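Quick illustration for those who missed Monday's session on complexes.
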Amino acid sequence: MAKAQVEDAVLRRLGYATQTDLVLHLPLRYEDETRLTPLREARPGRTVTVEGVIVHAELQTRPRRQLVVELAAAEPETAAHPAAQLFFRLLHFNAGQVAQLRPGARLRLHGEVRPGFYGAEMVHPRYRLVKPGTPLPETLTPVYPTVAGLSQTALRKAVSLALAQSDLSETLPPALAQRLALPAFAEAVRLLHAPPPDVDLDALERRTHPAWRRLKFDELLAQQLSLRRHARARATLSAPAMQSGGDLAQRLLSALPFALTRAQERVWQEIRADLARPHPMHRLLQGDVGSGKTLVAALACLPVVASGWQAAVMAPTEILAEQLHLKLREWLEPLGLGVVWLAAALKGKARASALSAINAGQAQIAVGTHALIQEGVDFPRLGLAIVDEQHRFGVEQRLALRAKGRPALTPHLLMMSATPIPRSLAMSYYADLDVSTLDELPPGRRPIATRVIHMTRRPEVIARLRDYCLGGAQAYWVCPLVEESEKLQLKATLAAHAELAAALPELGVGLVHGRMKAEEKAAVMTAFKAGRLHLLVATTVIEVGVDVPNAGLMVIEHAERMGLAQLHQLRGRVGRGTRESTCILLYAEPLSDAARRRLRILREQHDGFAIAREDLLLRGPGEFMGARQSGQPWLRFADPETDLDLLDTARKAADWLLDHHPGAVERHLARWLPKGLDYLRG
Ligand code: ADP
Ligand code: MG
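Prediction with magnesium ion bound:
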């Protein structure tokens, strides 16, 4: 095959499009073949390169089929070690190899020496036939991540061809390159693919070598450039500038039985200032479970309706959307504002009238699920889109709500999340967003006492539950997660409900799970909220947003199977009122180290930010971005957490480049985001 064809085949196998992709396909580790070890020093335990001549080769069939080759020093060694020899064995081989490995053939081998049946031996070393005096490589040999059927040899050839042929020129203006005090791009990739033998291998492996840092910087810079560019493009779009809505806000606040927390007040001012500008807001509101995001969302709607525009509020599930709807009605209807409900389950006349109110621009505020972004829904005066629990939607869905407005003016967008984003991630993946943080819970909340209890003590827990509920309070029982099958999950949930209902005849025991119809779910939730049910048996559908202040006890079965963020969210369902709250984490063996650590963190930590950080360490950034972010290019080389200094530099450099070196921006993005990939988040 021609060189180009070989390279094409390699690219295809790895799923790459261009030579640059190969240049950025970096080694996992290296082998040192730059030195020959004399045969007599090839002792068991060492990984070495040796050269020798075959003195004997034998095709054996017992105890198994194998080719055993005996090798002697190619040049006479010292008189003290006249008979240096080494065996090597092949267990898989073909006729060609048998023909090749004949006495007299001269070989160079690389591999680990082990103690063998006949003496020191190598099993399946890498070998090749050589002529006397064949030069040794001058650099370390890279070992690449690869896929089945693609050999290291083919990969090495393709990469070195790519290095020779593609454009490795510097993308950064000299002033910046100099300030970084890191090697140039070309120098860095050449070193990483073929380091000199005296390189600091430890630094290469830990990826702290200046060559590594240069690539990490370039990658972070591409991310920042891409995100900042989106933010700038948005700043050129027009949005309706809203009046302050101060009167309505005053009336809402004075009707509440409590005052805003300082954090709510600050965040509300940030949002109000954004809404007053003639460019679309693009803001993430993050706050731990129970920090009072719903009220902030309600306040955000006020300037919008006061200015004659519509607001749409979307949540990921019917239960959540329904709760939002109830809250917003409770707060906003007394002000004379119209709040319309729209969900898939809404049918017939009710649906038609909701749709016509929205489409005619009469509905001032619409609350609902994905139904809001479906065909046929059309807000003639959409001024603000609010997406609750934003990480449970994909980027496209979040943007789809905003797109429901008329094209001339772009609506403002407020995204809310109870999964706090650690600072490093906020600075990297969310660099195009403005972030507001509710870092304070409403007063009077007490930390939720969290207890980790073995499954064998379940009967005691049930007895405690009875006393607790007979005392007038309410509780949740969360059923185990059955990952393999929804059917099994349902079965386990139904069984738990039946068991608890039988064990607690004096209590009203309700049930909600994911397979129930929306109206059934709503009926159960309403009964629970009204206090007609004492105990609510549930699957993790109650994970987010459910708000029943009288419920102060939660039991979670098989907590060891759940993730940190999920457990923290679940636990946040209690501790909403002023009563003492408890969360009981029931666990069973076997308990993995990670599970043990999760349970310990939950018992000791109550702060969502601290938990999110631990989660980031345990699971990586993907979890924070939402599961359905297809096409999201993750950082491959840099880690925002450990490379915070580079991230900081890249952030500053990005704005400077966008202002002063648009050509460099294009060149840099062409190298790092070649396939039209994008770090866009919405
Ligand atoms: P989340 O941020 O998790 O969505 P919610 O908006 O559901 O939290 O608020 C949790 C509870 O706290 C609700 O019952 C809400 O009415 C109440 N709440 C909100 N703000 C305050 C406040 N400033 N003082 C007291 N209670 C508040
Ligand atoms: Mg909420």
